[in-house]
Amino acid sequence: MQKITSALGSFEILDKDESLKSSHKDSPYDWDPPYWLPNPPPKDVDVEATPWIRPPQAAMSIVGVNVIDVENSKVLEKMTVKIKDGNIISIAKSQTKDMQEDGYASVDASGLYMCPGLIDCHTHLTATPGGTAAGGLRPHSETLTALQSTWVLKGMLARGFTTIRDVGGANRHYKDATAQWLIPGPRILQGGPVVSQSGGHGDEGNPDDDIPCCPINPTRASNTVGIVADGYDACLKVARKLMMAGADHIKICSSGGVASLTDKLESSQFTVAEIKAICDTCRMMGGTLVTAHCFTSEGARNAIEGGIGGIEHGNLIDEDTLRLMAKKGIHYTPTLIVCDLLSRPPFNSIIPPVSREKLTHVQKMGFVTLKKAHEVGVNIAYGTDCFSNMQPVQLSEFDLRASVLPSPVVLKHATCNAAKVIKMEGKVGCLKQGSFADFLLLSSNPLEDVTILSKPKEYLQGIVKDGRCVHSRVKGLRVEVSLV
Q: How many C-beta atoms lie closer than 10 Å to residue 340's C-beta?
């Protein structure tokens, strides 16, 4: 260490060896990325290392906290939750000694509520804001989209979503980026582009284009959220290619959509044989499930017959079909907030007049179908479908669902129910020994009023994902990864 005195005062500079040590500290709080190395470099430099990989998460103990048991809709009062290597290793009644236990950074969370990190099962993280309003649905630059998505991902995590399922747009590289903390963001389950028939909800082609003889090879325009496949063989091939590319699931379109211009909302899309080709492939190659964009009963029944595992939106599905879904264990992910936002200014400018006409047909029925699905026993997950400049309104889905269902039920949608959809029960959407250390610290009980989650500035005191704190207003809970 050298001391330097100047007209501006005195200061200290590190010796050469000390400066090298400072960029390789073991503490995740003091860790500095190796942005600089001398030449020649130190002998222990690993040229094959991924330099943004962080040190192991610091062990912490959250003491005196009220733990939300979402599965049983109850509160475990004054508990100590110990966290190490990104996992919860124990939950037990708090004791005085917990605040001084060696090896753990102890945090006094008395009076706060620990809620599992939220899960959004219907997102489009590559449908980024910026440019024209409709540009969020049809990005033009893959590079620009990737850069803009960093804002989307940070925002989702800042709102408390520690896990998301992207159902059209993202690929495994986005998933790897947040897993490695290259981009701070939620854990991502991705399926690549949504699969559509020609003229279906995911077909973004020009209706005035020439009509060639249909090839077996599936087609996809550069950097769109959809891929087109027609016929059994093409569906088989596109499913295999998506699974080869690392898809966790596959999403298809089995009915028309609101935002698409060339299909009727009530149209049924893909034959049962085509759907079966995709579902069988996903299952055989290790995917979680195939889920279907679908508004209608006929589209849902075709999808179920073909082996589908989930239905997205589903506003117009009748009670008999909902009972069939409950019987067969088909998951349901409604998306009320996107319909609400698109129905009025300023977001109604995102879609054209023909889409607004479709929207009036489905908006009110969404609440009816949600309530009936709950009554007949369908597993319901939280989904938003927010895209473009709607991304920050992601939490308001809680407000809409809470208008027709009790708070404990709605909280399950975004936690343990959603974990079933992505087949991560016991790891996410819960707080128990062995689960990932993904949780929120709240100043009020969401079981009593789930809408507090849509007011983060008032009630959200801390966010932890993989045991790493990204937001804190709690004394002693240090932010390891900043989201600003």
A: 18
